[in-house]
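Hi again,

Forgot to attach this to my earlier email, sorry! This is the prediction with pyridoxal-5'-phosphate bound. I've pasted everything inline since the attachment limit keeps bouncing my files.
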Amino acid sequence: MQYCSTRSEKGLVSSSEAIVRGLAPDGGLYVPAGFPKAELESLQGLSYPALAARLLKLFLTDYESAFLEAAAGEAYGPGFGGKAGRLVRVEDGLYALELWHGPTCAFKDYALQLMPKLLVEAKKNLGDTETTLILVATSGDTGKAALEGYRDVPGVEIRVFYPNDGTSEIQRLQMSTQEGGNVGVWAVEGNFDSAQTGVKRVFADAAVAEALAGRGVRLSSANSINFGRLVPQLVYYFHAYLSLVREGAVPMGEAVDFCVPTGNFGDILAGWYAKQMGLPVGRLVCASNRNKVLADFFDTGVYEARREFYKTTSPSMDILVSSNLERLLYHLGGSPEAVAGWMQALAAEGRYKIGTELLARIRRDFAGGFAADEEAAAEIKELFARCRYLADPHTATAFRVAQRNRTGAPMVVLSTASPFKFPGSVLEALGQAVPENEFDAMIRLEEATGAKAPAALAALQTKPERFAGVIRPAEIAAVALGER
Ligand SMILES: *Cc1c(COP(=O)(O)O)cnc(C)c1O
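Structure tokens for the complex follow:
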């Protein structure tokens, strides 16, 4: 399998190169030149790691099978406590795909437990001996998952930047207490967009690149623009489907719908990739919070990022520029020239508009919707009262939107974070008093619901904080250069 940029089809690269480079030289995202077909029957009964290795192999063709099997075994083994790909029946025809049983309690672990192994092996495949310096701008979950994935990985340094007042207290502590000899964490003044813009500016700074190259260091990204983050995510769509077939909830070959709480459009795009590989995916429902750029885009074909930015109770979906949508536009027939034009318009004017034919093709596979904080809170309360199912605010947003978009097929909602990452918001939604301290809130949430807080989150209370630095976005370059 070879990979090209969404903005020009020249210069095909191997999967190792796509993973090491992250972004194509023309600023586009790497996409596979075609979609391999998966033989569903032959995948039945496989363990999660074995299924992952089989599907990864179809895309990562320059990696050895034995390497992929070992890597998947380590990534999805003890760290997931036997709950990788866990599917829970919520009520008739409605399921939660719980993706937060990994080490950092959010779905990002699926990609970021594996991706460091893919990167190290890719460097080996390419004979690349440079140090990789990873810069991550995070609204909360990516930062922690990347720190945990890359900690003490040889040949890699990682620096994470989060908005000073943009994460939950638990998310902040997860990062400020991070262990490892190759990690650094900084709070950045402003919101997520300021941190992200600051990091992007450093990536585009030739002087920084030159100074680092002189020391044998190359910058890289762990954000979901890297193809290495996308491919591990299609595995759990297959796993969920095969689980439903095994339970007799759907006959082999019949469609299942999925609803995905969406920010950067990476997770839901992986579902569309699974569909291209032959998985019977019916409708992909894209759920947004009040920052509903995508819901509006599916309605009108206009991507309008110039709008007010809202801080919500689902911070990992507080995003106005969904980078991975570029890949879908390319695959569904936007020519590389057209994609490059839209992305230029987005950068220059904050908006672009696609044609009606392309919009119609998108709508064949996708539906969009949104739920504001109050609706997500009401959904948390109702789901718990009706089904004894406890959802975090991101997952609840998707449940709300899913229920407005039922087709009669089974509906699987991707549950992307543990409710104990946001104990205050969840308690409030349940109509309970909210203690000031987040750890008291965690205990209250356990008492109120009978659910158990993940040990990794409860343990944060007694872990020493290692990182307390606050910087301005303009100082990110100094951090990259080791001057701060
Ligand atoms: C990152 C994240 C999302 C959004 O996923 P995308 O791939 O960016 O669309 C949703 N929920 C949670 C909890 C997340 O951490």
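The radius of gyration is 21 Å. The chain is about 45% helix and 15% strand.

That should be everything now.

G.
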